[in-house]
Amino acid sequence: MPEQRWAVTRAEDGTVRIAGPSAGPAFTRAVLDVAGAVLTWPVLGPTGLPAAEIHDVGQAQQWLWAVYGEGTAAAVDALASGAPATEVTLPERPTALAEAAARLALGHWAARWWPASHLDGIPPLEPALLSLELAALTHECQQLLEESGEVEGIELLEEHMAALDPLIRWQESADPPRQLDRVLRLIDDAADNSGLDGEAVRRLRSALEQDHHRPTAAPLDLAELFVRQREFALAAGSPGTETGRVIVRGSGTNDWRRYPPGFVDAAEDAVSWTAYALGAGRRIEVEVVADIAAPAGGVHLAAEVHVDGRPPSRVPLARRDDVWSGRADLDIPASTTPGIEVGVLLPGFDPGPGADERAAREAVRALARHRLSDAAAQPAPFLAEIAAAAAGEEEF
Amino acid sequence: MVIDGAWRGLGPGPRALSGPGGAPLTRTVKLIVLPLIVRPALRPDLAADFLGAREAEQLDALIRESGAVLEATAQWFTLLKKTRRALGIVAGNPQDLYFQRCFELATEHGAPGPGADAVARAVLEDVVDASGGRTVEALKEHLADAARRARLDAELAAAWDGREALPDAADTGLAAEVLEACGTAGADAPAFAAMVRAGHGSLLGQALWAAAHPDDVWGRADIPPHLGLTAHRVPPRPEVGRSASTATLPAPFDRTLFERLFTVLQASTHRAQLPPVPELVRQEVGRSCAPLGLHDESLRVAIVLGGRLAVGLDPLGSGASVAGSTAAHRIVNSRWRREASVLRARRMTVSPHPDPDGGVLNALAQDLRTPWAAYMRRLWVRLHGRDVRDAALPDTASAWGVLDGVARSVMMDHRARVRTALRTLSVTAAPSEPAAPVATVAEMRSA
User: Fold this and answer.
1) Structural domain of residue A276, as residue ranges?
2) Could you report the per-residue pLDDT of B181-196, keeping only the tens digit for each?
3) Which positions in chain B touch A297 (Cβ < 8 Å)?
């Protein structure tokens, strides 16, 4: 890697910034809340060191040197006590802590933005599996974190304890992934340090104590190991229930930022709409392909419908099998073909419409496909990605 | 970094105190290395974030000299964890609970030898017992006696009648000066001491008791003088009470004696410093009828400071309430901005504008539009906890420590509540989702 020089500056409010590669929209940023700072890696960029926004320089000294090197730590310290902005040379090879931090941040990113899609053939990541690996990585990064960050890792572990047994079975199978042993040992150590106990933890401990690897004869069916309901009869594009005459149809915008993960299929063409003529009236029907894990009852998404640039109206969407759908009457003159734009959102969650980020979404899909297909992906694939790739071969 | 290097030089001996990469655990540094080995109070040269070569050498030598005792500490820690598991103890973080004790054991006995099992058992039992009967259960029992409750009720009535309300007494003028001095290292504001001397906290409390208090104490017409510390216009007389539930605690000034002490006893961290339960109850009668429900004037002044800070909080980054912004406001609001960008990147947003279809998320966003309410509630509970264990705020720095800590807690609360809300939304799917565990938690909390 060529020598890199990054700017270190101090803002008026005392915040010290280490400028990294510039980041794109929110869904392309892997962030980590660390002691005294926030670190940001661009998910789509080359892997490397993060940009840092340091609000507590004293606290950040506990890890700055171990991530950015001694020179940067000294520069930040000098800057905080009044020295002018400067440039620093970064270590040529990332330290072990920097690598673990990048991986932890990317894992958190994947847990929120992985573009799982039936339409695109991108299998979902098993949440419990990813969470356990994140718990392990959190422990590995303990030097970086504040107590709240550490607690987050322990909570992930507590919540997904049930997935420990399949992980142990995977480890005892003929061909466990390289990092699994380390993940299990980190989990054991994290549980031991935090005083977490339970049947699953004890079984893990005794499995680890048998030390040398004793592969069981039978090869393992990964898809079966992490059983999920995958019955999913795709009905997208099926004729709507309306009987009127179709005036116009189109696809809407699938802006991931406007609803939480696990609600909508991440494909660009997951949102579609049809405008009908019913006598003199006009009606729109919106259909959105649901995520496999989408909640069925109680929650309503909403479509935001713009007609001819007028203020938007909302159409509530309820889940029926694999689609969220809803319809509403439109107040438009019968003579014209309306210009319609449709978005999908979760009321109360939606931060508002954003810029056109189609290209960035496509880049994220390409990243996901690359990571699933290439075992040499950097950082190395997560256990959940390995399992998803295996499941994908069977089902997608 | 020096600590890290010296630590690695110690070899595998203290491994039970090291993290996965071989560096000392964060708590090892915070609870053992710094306070018990480096002791910066005795060696101020070593207290800096960044050490010169000579100091670095000195620190390195200190840690290396302590190699044997650290190794023994690690062995004690391993033994204590093992004994703890055998005894089935799960409450609390073992590092927090035992690190310092292990260092003491190592200093006194060296490595665990014959008879160490019994010592370990005794230490564990000792730590478990540190609550010394200062528990919610004991409080419940104490207040179960009808005659005692009647007596306390009469005392409350007398104390309440003895108050002196002072309309128009509130003076929050110096607060901005103190807040301007917050957050810069070593800076102290004489204004804080002046506010304590002049009793500005008591004056606010007495003004709030008056039926005809001014409507605009905080420079914003939309914020009540009591900052949501009571649901009433004027705080009512506290009742004795016999039960409490975390989920439904009323505003601080509207809490019963039981509810006030319940929150204190639930926070287990400082239990050993509390007076015994009967004394706790006796003191709370006077405290609950004192201005702002607090005895100590520095803590009352902290309410004034907190109020002044709270009315300028801007978690949504609307820039609307920057009037009279101080250094403290800038620090806290810039933290909120950072938090907002983290939450966007973690896909945990709430709509910035009111949304009638938004359900629980809309309610959380609404709380962000009136951040002063949550802030004051948390601040009062923390100050009350300090008051109960006689921990006054000696200077601006310690006051800022509390004000800033509360700001962080409010932010972390918000994050936790958004996380919970989103998780709940995502699982509404399964109609078989068992309701039982939720009920159990609620019952436990209301115990």
Assistant:
1) 245-354
2) 887 766 677 899 999 9
3) 428-429, 431
